Amino acid sequence: MKKRLQIHKKADSSAYSSEQSQLRSHFLTSHSQLGSKKPIVQAKVENQKFQQYQFEATKLQIQAKHGTITPEGQERLTVLQTKMSESLQQGKEHSSQFGHNLSKMAIKRADSLSIGEIQPKLTIGQSEDRYEQEADSVATSVVNQINRSPLQNQDAGVKNEQAKSEEILAANNSADKKQKFLQEYSLAKTLVNGIDDTLPQDKILEQLFKNFVNIQFQYTMVSKSPETLLKGSPEGDCQTLARAFKKVAEEYFGIEKITIESIAKPFLSEAGATPYQGKKPNCDDGKRWFFQNHYWASWNGKIYDVLFLSNKRTEADMAKQVQPLTSMLMPEQEYYQTEKGKIVYPIVNKYSTVEVTIFEKLKNFVNNLGRFFSNSMSTIINKIRSLFAQGGNNTSGFDSLMRELEHDKNNSAIANNQTQ
Questions:
Q1: What share of the chain is helix, strand, coil (3-state, %, to 5)?
Q2: Within 10 A of 208 (CB to CB), how many other CB atoms are there?
Q3: Residues of the chain with pLDDT under 70
Q4: How far, in Å, CA of 81 to CA of 61, rounded?
Q5: Structure pTM?
Q6: What is the pLDDT of residues 351-376, one digit of tens each?
Q7: Would you call 357 exposed, middle or buried from its count of C-beta atoms within 10 A (0-12, 13-18, 19+)?
Q8: What gap in Å lies between CA 49 and CA 139, rounded to an integer?
Q9: 73: Cβ contacts below 8 Å, ≥ 6 apart
Q10: Contact 91, 100 (CB under 8 A)
């Protein structure tokens, strides 16, 4: 370039001056275009903001036309109209200051826009112009930054509202479910009475557990369904109670993973009277229980023995067999032998016990006497069975029987000697 300018200078000094003028003019033009970049971006930002305001306002106008707009929506529409007017005013100021063309921009208030009408854009320059394209890019970035935070807040607000709505819906569904449960199972009202369902689950279960004492339950030792109990017939056995506890806890309070546990074999228990009506211990005149099986509920490692309203596992003297043994000495010819040395036998609808040592002695005595008293063996057995029927723990009665049998044996021996 320097060489060329020197050649031009030698050839023609006027040409050199013309060249310098052109360069100066080009520099000033370029500088002017670069300097105008900032107002172009501002105009672009205002234009895009106006279009966004207009788009949102149009949707609200449609709602207003059909009478579905909310008070909040109406208030938002007023705000948008104000912002659109401010945006148009700023566009006018930019136009008057920097000479941009606003002739293609129809200025109307938002409330006068008709549905479907499209507002023309502010014309800044030719779309293929490099500065115009750069201004579009910068304006888009600015508008996105302006709107990003409000949009994020709006999304967060929508999510919060959805979560609240879902929570309210779940609460309503839960309330409806509980109401239907109480309508179907009238006795459940007594069981859930006074329980705050916002408490921790273990507290709810403990209060439900204690409320069983209020249902006037009668322990009949005959199993009934939990539905029968909850519908207003409070009778049955330990299985009935445990399953009713589980049903109310799960279906009314929504507490899961409650299990029903059991002892499947017959056993003796030293548990006392139940807190319900109708039954004292059924063995040895109210001293202990004899069960064919036993049921209770458990949750999270905790025991809920609803029959005894106890949180302890029942201590059991297990029978050595599931089915009863038989003996001609027993009143009903059936008995169970337990692991701790008891003989349990039924008497009508109750049970009694005798120590296995006494029972074995009687069996051996009868077997030995059989050789001497074969004719009167049935009489001896009847006396023994009558004694058991009076209660097997009466050891004095057994001793008296033994003396009587020994006396009969001696009399028989004397009679035999006299005959000879």
A1: 55, 15, 30
A2: 22
A3: 1-45, 91-159, 161, 163-167, 169-172, 278, 369-377, 392-399, 401-402, 405-420
A4: 11
A5: 0.56
A6: 999 999 888 888 887 777 665 555 56
A7: exposed
A8: 10
A9: 60, 63, 64
A10: no
Please, what is the angle between helix 37-65 and helix 71-98, to 10°? 150
* Whether 373 contacts 356, CB under 8 Å: no
The two three-digit tokens of residue 88, written as one number: 């148009």
> What are the tokens at 341?
């040395």
Pairing between β-strand 294-299 and β-strand 302-304 as defined by DSSP bridges = antiparallel
Amino acid letter, residue 82:
T
pLDDT tens-digit readout, 177-223 = 999 999 999 999 999 999 999 999 999 999 999 999 999 999 988 99
Instruction: Show the tokens assigned to 302.
Output: 């905790």
Could you read off the pLDDT of 104-152 as tens digits, one per residue?
Answer: 444 444 444 444 444 444 444 455 566 556 656 655 665 566 556 555 6
Indicate the residue type of 34: L
- Token pair listed for 322: 């599931």
Supply φ then ψ for residue 290, to 5 degrees: -125, 120
In angstroms, rounded to a whole number, what is the distance separating the alpha carbons of residues 204 and 304? 13
Q: 382, 404 in Cβ contact below 8 A?
A: no
Cα–Cα dist 122/62, whole Å: 25
- At 261, which amino acid appears? E
User: What's the Cα-to-Cα distance from 157 to each of 52, 220, 262, rounded to whole Å?
Assistant: 20, 59, 52
Q: Are 235 and 224 in contact (CB under 8 A)?
A: yes
How far apart CA 64 and CA 77 sit, in angstroms, is: 10
What is the distance of C-alpha 106 from the center of its chain?
Answer: 60
Residue 373: exposure state from Cβ atoms within 10 A (0-12, 13-18, ≥19): middle
